[in-house]
Design goal:
The complex is a heterodimer of chains A (about 525) and B (about 300). Chain A has 16 helices and 18 strands. Chain A has about 525 residues and is of the alpha+beta class. In chain A, the strands form four sheets. In chain A, strands 8-9-10-1-11-16-12-15-13-14 form a ten-stranded mixed sheet, sandwiched between helices. A four-stranded antiparallel sheet of chain A has the order 4-5-7-6. Chain B is an all-alpha fold and about 300 residues long. Chain B has a domain of about 170 residues: MetI-like (MetI-like fold, Orthogonal Bundle). Chain B contains 14 helices and no strands. The longest helix of chain B is centred in the middle third of the chain and has 36 residues. In chain B, about 45% of the residues are buried. The chains are: A alpha+beta (about 525), B mainly alpha (about 300). Chains A and B meet through helix 1, helix 6, helix 7 and helix 13 of A and helix 2, helix 3, helix 7, helix 11 and helix 12 of B.
């Protein structure tokens, strides 16, 4: 999340004025894109590399899915796994999956897709020496082995039930010969995939132009793209993005703040679509022996905090449409995520005060609340805490600094968010914070064991039961307070047809002009 | 003159060195770059690997000395974010920023010279008050705010100019105005003060007595003398405009050095950040030195002081 370096109250006023001006002026070149079947998309961050293995930003994931393909495809509505570059697959043993590959698929440079592409890509990215940026996406792979020209086996380091989910998400396939020749730097300079769009021009930090892959394989579950050309520009300033949308200079922007989206909805040539995302929000409590706020070691204090925050009101008034209150620390669609049996901490400030008094904090206590984004949400929670006597000082910083404070035991309470890298499995969320890894500030061995049991079994029933027990145990002990899911607001030309999905993936191959 | 120049040069080198040291220290104090580079979801082992790979585990003075040594040899290191050598990356963006800086300077002068002359000619009249009022507004209005107002008027309402980008000359119009107007008041006040002083001089009275046309008196005799201190200020203002381009380039998504600086701050790209800070401070120091030398050349009293 980039810092809002130049944020000033005055800018908000100008944005409101711009939106008002947009209402009066109407669209400029709105129809230009429709006539040449081009979509112009503005995003605030530029990826450090277009090679999906060497960036960790959302726009990188979006470009990755539009330019490259994966072995498996997860249906965006049913979450069902379908064949993509692989026609089918079967589990050989607990650590081995065998894939039958699709024949006749070509990369954008003409190179044929086959077992060599899979073997070279997976073995390259699994080697830590090659320094893939997000190791969590690939460090479960031991190796890939060629069985025949169109048959490969993927072997995991240990039992890894979420393997198919990763092979349907961040683990894309590169052309073996080209990648061996040019490496990640060359792939960034001239990207080559099998996906529905191919890169025609790329200026790092500035823009990337794509055009429809005319030879895209017809059996792809993504379908044939309808948009002919795509232009992605990196515009860091959100107000400028909105101005571009108002002036008709761009057809699609995302991550628009709620108040601006509500205003933009009134502009005749624009449409606003909001949708829930997989990014969950929760309050993390440091309950370790050396916690900076000793009160948090007391379960009654943690429960008091849980009852003190009016989550429903914050969701309704601040977070916005598409969000929902969560009762366990995972996203509901993730495999193994459930709030069955977990307590509901209803908003009850009187009960919160009573619990605090029982714990010996009748006059409340002083603490710090660390946060790095959605400051208005943090401030609302601070107000709720103040109402029951908890004086939480806001410590707002960049993500890296906040995470540093959590890991060095300096942050008693943290306003956290987690996107699970869009991986639809609990193994990508809850265990990050409760299995004695760096971000675990609870260290409950029982929770750890339950989560690891869920992570390390291939039996879905065993996994579900283990996760359910762990999530209930975390909620019973109020080790953290699950808050809500984050929505995302898209502002687009009214003439553009598109859908919003929880994984925040922009599926340009599905888009079309009305 | 030579001794004076040597003294100023020595001082300039020390200033550049001090700036590089402060920038290096402050950037490192702003957080652990290894955590930022490793990203969300990285394990402790990943972070340790990043720390060792980039040498962030060594003492700060060692890191600084190594960086300074490499920089003096022309090696600015590799961009952590874009994974390309920092020197060509920075140089590729420098042209846009220089063009923007020079255009803004030209715009500031085009605005300030006539207004300064008018204010001096009609001193204490409503014209003078209007010119001074414009100068006050110019300095009080932050350029990011003014930039958004320009976008609102010329892009959203009138559809005359593109909002952002750097592909055509039209893309430079609003950034030039947004950056240049802020520098204009300083020039305007200097020209007004200079003109007022010069217009009272004996040689101007003589020129008028000779029956020379008013335009000749004002532009050939008065302005030529009043503009001398502006030449010195121009060098300093150009340095300021290059530094000030960070905000303007970010708002207008102009693909220049300022935009790169913003990106490198966002992504904790230390080699690029350090190099940009150093480059801008060196440019500023060189321009200030040039301004000092120009002043000393024009006015020998400064050399003695």
């Amino acid at each position: 999340m980039p810092s809002r370096l130049f944020a000033r109250p005055g800018r908000r006023i100008v944005t409101v004025a711009m939106l008002a001006a947009g209402l009066i002026a109407g669209a400029g070149s709105v129809w230009a894109s429709k006539s040449d079947n081009t979509v112009r998309f503005a995003y605030d961050q530029a990826p450090e590399s277009v090679d999906p293995y060497f960036n960790n930003v959302r726009i990188g994931v979006i470009i990755g899915a539009n330019v490259w393909d994966t072995l498996v495809y997860r249906d965006s509505i049913t979450n069902e796994y379908k064949g993509n570059l692989a026609k089918s697959w079967k589990q050989i043993d607990e650590r081995t999956i065998e894939f039958d590959l699709r024949e006749g698929v070509k990369f954008h440079n003409g190179e044929e897709f086959d077992a060599d592409s899979v073997v070279y890509t997976l073995n390259f990215v699994a080697d830590p020496a090659n320094k893939v940026t997000t190791q969590a996406n690939v460090n479960w792979i031991e190796k890939a082995v060629k069985v025949s020209k169109y048959k490969v086996r993927v072997i995991t380091k240990k039992v890894f039930p979420a393997a198919i989910e990763y092979l349907a998400g961040p683990v894309v396939m590169h052309p073996a010969k080209y990648y061996a020749e040019v490496g990640p730097k060359g792939m960034n300079a001239k990207p080559v995939g099998t996906g529905p769009f191919k890169v025609t021009q790329y200026t790092p930090g500035k823009s990337i132009r794509l055009e429809r892959n005319a030879d895209y394989f017809k059996d792809s579950p993504k379908g044939t793209p309808k948009i002919a050309k795509l232009e992605i520009r990196f515009i860091p300033d959100r107000q400028t993005q909105m101005a571009e949308a108002l002036a008709g200079g761009t057809d699609f922007i995302m991550h628009v703040p709620k108040d601006q989206a509500e205003q933009a909805a009134k502009v005749p040539h624009l449409q606003v679509v909001s949708g829930e995302t997989m990014r969950i929000v929760f309050m993390q409590f440091d309950t370790l022996e050396a916690t900076p706020t000793a009160a948090l070691k007391d379960i009654r204090v943690r429960k008091a905090i849980s009852h003190a925050i009016n989550r429903e009101a914050i969701v309704k008034n601040i977070v916005g449409a598409g969000s929902r209150v969560l009762n366990t620390q995972c996203f509901p669609s993730q495999f193994g995520c459930t709030d069955e049996g977990a307590p509901r901490y209803a908003y009850d400030p009187a009960l919160a005060k009573k619990l605090l008094a029982e714990a010996g904090y009748a006059n409340g206590f002083d603490t710090e609340l660390y946060a790095y984004r959605e400051r208005n949400q943090t401030e609302a929670m601070i107000n709720d805490l103040k109402a029951v006597g908890i004086r939480a000082k806001l410590n707002f910083s960049q993500y890296a600094a906040m995470r540093d404070a959590v890991r060095s035991n300096k942050a008693p309470m943290t306003h956290q968010t987690w996107g699970s890298f869009s991986v639809n499995d609990v193994s990508a969320s809850t265990p990050v914070y409760f299995t004695f890894e760096a971000d675990d500030v609870t260290h409950d061995a029982a929770v750890r064991d339950m989560l690891l049991k869920g992570n390390n079994s291939v039996d879905p029933a065993v996994r579900k039961q283990a996760y359910q027990q762990a999530l209930k145990h975390i909620a019973d002990n109020a080790y953290s307070l699950p808050l809500w899911s984050l929505p995302v607001y898209y502002v687009a030309s009214k003439e553009l047809s598109f859908s919003a999905y929880p994984d925040e993936m922009v599926r340009f191959w599905e888009m079309s002009w009305k | 003159m030579h001794i004076y120049m040597l003294k100023r040069l020595g001082l300039a080198v020390l200033v550049a060195l001090a700036v590089s040291m402060i920038a290096f220290g402050l950037l490192r104090l702003s957080g652990d770059p290894a955590i930022a580079i490793a990203g969300e979801g990285a394990t402790q082992a990943d972070i340790v690997l990043v720390r060792q790979t980039y040498g962030f585990d060594r003492p700060l003075p060692v890191q600084y000395a190594e960086w300074l040594g490499r920089t003096l040899r022309g090696d600015l290191g590799e961009s952590i974010y874009f994974k390309t050598p920092a020197a060509p990356l920075i140089l590729s963006k420098l042209q846009t920023t220089l063009v923007l800086g020079l255009l803004s300077l030209a715009f500031a002068l085009v605005i300030s010279v006539p207004l300064g002359v008018l204010a001096a000619l009609y001193r204490n009249s409503w014209i003078d008050r209007l010119c001074l009022g414009l100068a006050v507004i110019g300095q009080a209005l932050p350029n990011f705010f003014f930039a958004l107002l320009l976008i609102m008027l010329f892009s959203i309402v009138l559809h005359w100019l593109p909002v952002s980008g750097s592909d055509s000359w039209q893309h430079f119009i609003m950034p030039t105005v947004a950056l240049g107007y802020y520098a204009a008041p300083a020039f305007m006040r200097l020209i007004r003060a200079g003109m007022i002083e010069v217009l009272d001089a004996d040689y101007i009275r003589t020129a008028r007595a000779k029956g020379l046309p008013a335009s000749t008196v004002i532009f050939k005799h008065a302005l030529r003398n009043a503009v001398v201190p502006v030449v010195a200020l121009t060098a300093v203002q150009l340095g300021y405009l290059l530094g000030g381009s960070v905000v303007v380039e970010t708002i207008f998504a102009l693909d220049g050095l300022g935009y790169l600086a913003y990106q490198s701050i966002t992504f904790k790209d230390f080699p690029v950040m350090q190099s940009i800070v150093l480059l801008l401070s060196v440019i500023y120091v060189v321009l200030t030195l040039a301004s000092d030398v120009a002043n000393a050349w024009l006015d020998p009293r400064i050399r003695v002081a």
